[in-house]
Structures
1.
Amino acid sequence: MKLDVKEILKSIYGKLAEFRRKIYKKGILKKKSLPIPVISVGNLSVGGSGKTPVTIEIAKYFQKKGLKPCVLSRGYKRNSKGVVVVSDGKDIFVDVKTAGDEPYLIAKSGIPVVVGESRYEAGLQALVEIKPDIFILDDGFQHYQLERDVDILLIDATKPFWKDELLPVGRLREPRSFNKYADIFVITKTFLLSDKEKEELKNTLEYFAKPYFFSEEKFNRFTDGELEYNFDIMVDVDIGVFAGLGNNQQFFRYMRECGIRCGFRVKHVISFPDHATYENLQLPEDVDFWVTTYKDFIKLTPQQIKKNKIFALMYDVNLPDEFFEYLEKRIYIRKGRKALER
């Protein structure tokens, strides 16, 4: 009988994940808490499910209410250690390499951001230097060390966790059953589904008996870093697309479909690893423009952008009013009605 190494590793990975949850649940390792509300935005899988855009949208909502949110992030693959204050919401104090891709992207949206391996330590420093009213953990579902008041689990509509497998067979970081630790489901990437697929998705979601909300993604403009443009600039041209995301194929698929609708031709598609640095970027010159994601764009130098005529596709996420009403209700239950009042 031939051993399936990946299946063996998947089983080991699942047992380790369950053990890690258990030692926190039983209090063998103690969780720490911060004195203001904490919202976690995360998922069960590796790769992009829209965590950063959703984090930005939630932070902007609280800013509109007159509150000061602060995002706490690990700062994955940053070249710094310890706690780093990336932004106070007005100024950005470090570069993208020091902050990490996602924290820098969030800071570019005018949101306070602090990174640190320990979100608790990052939160303590934020309380002193930024004085926020609420914390949002970017990619926080597996960060058990810190107590949270609301756990938001994002679900990629094109690859929901119930159709996926644990690493290394699939993309799941934790067993499917761990969805039970979430308070709210937010479904992303539904623009890539047919009406029939959306209906099937809704039917499955009902089974989990969790409140769920659909995000609305909007791709309606490009930027060259200085000005923004609508899709008219891409009519009847040849373009190349590149990305270094957790799931590049979704971006490429969208750009191909957009080309059919808007009248441009995708001549080159180049996939880079997640968190690519682009220090030695070499792109073919036989296209009119190159298009990438804004997350990738912020890591490019002005010289690279100008030389290769690179634009970033701007990506906005809208969440329904009902989502924010439910979110505030959960915080009131955990922290009291005054928790979100200034």
2.
Amino acid sequence: MMKVALFGSTGSVGKMTLEVLEKFPNDFSIHALVAHRSSALLVEQVKKYKPQTVVLYDEAEASKAEKMLSKQVHFGKEGLLRALDSADLMVQSMSSTEGIEATIEAAKRGIKIAIANKETIIAAHHLLKPYNPLLRPIDSEHSSLKKLYENQRPVKTTITGSGGPFLHRPLKEFSTITLKEALIHPNWPMGAHNTINSSTMFNKALEVMEAHSLFGMAPLAVIEPTSRIHAFAEYEDGMTQMVAYQPDMRVPIAHALGVERTLPFPFRKNLDLSKIEFSPIDPERFPLFQLAYEAIKTECGPLFLMFLNEFLVDDFLKGSLSWLDLQHKLQQGFESLPQFSIDSIEAIKELKKITKSIHKCITSTSYTAC
């Protein structure tokens, strides 16, 4: 039986991972549950799944959960590392960069890693590489690309995107887009940051950069509004293969866990491929997408772009920046891309500080140039 340490158990991917694990009680045991701040939901999960180790990254929330559970709840960096003790598989779905050091530690220990965290791959792929980790991507696009790379290396790959909630909204109305509207995704339930990134299609920029880190090749991207086709690849012999299934994150999660060949597969849905349409990504409608191809030309470009977008999305969620300004500021800030080598965790932290300074500069009311 494989012992699973689930990082980000209270997020959307974490909750769906628990749903998948429930279907295979003879194959997996839930060894550790890890969350950032959601103590109430984590307490519910602990009572239901009874993990050996419980971690809340936030110390105050950990203390609160400990009182509710009458069980030790670990916190901080040490807590994240403790969750890996005796684990066979790490499912890494913690948002932002808190889980990077734990992911590197898992790679050092030879623990299998099912990863849904773009930030960790983009930030730390240089640091993970020496340990030759067994990474199993959970994102539907990268899970699909992994299958397409299994037998031969493609000469060209393409991922798809739904186009988000504003695919058909007139450009002249973009200035009136509200937070409530931007938080509605047409096909997938996701967290707030990911949903906003979908609305600007910055999520596809992140996925291009992530794929470049994972496979050494930056895919193209097209819009496929139904999210039924996830990726396709062209090979030297002229053949094109695609991966298609009804939008359901439990499918790539099951693949990352290694149970996709179990029959009967519990999440199978009949696939209707009628009325599939592809269209290019309009750079006027979605200007942030092309930044990915500029960013991968430099070592720190993807990480800098990811951090800057993270700060600006926070501003939008707080109401201090409009949806259009979020995009304008990201384009503006990318012009200040520093030259920086990502050779340590400390370098990642330092780049985040530099990016925060540039963010402060470009969002200042007295902004001139950074």
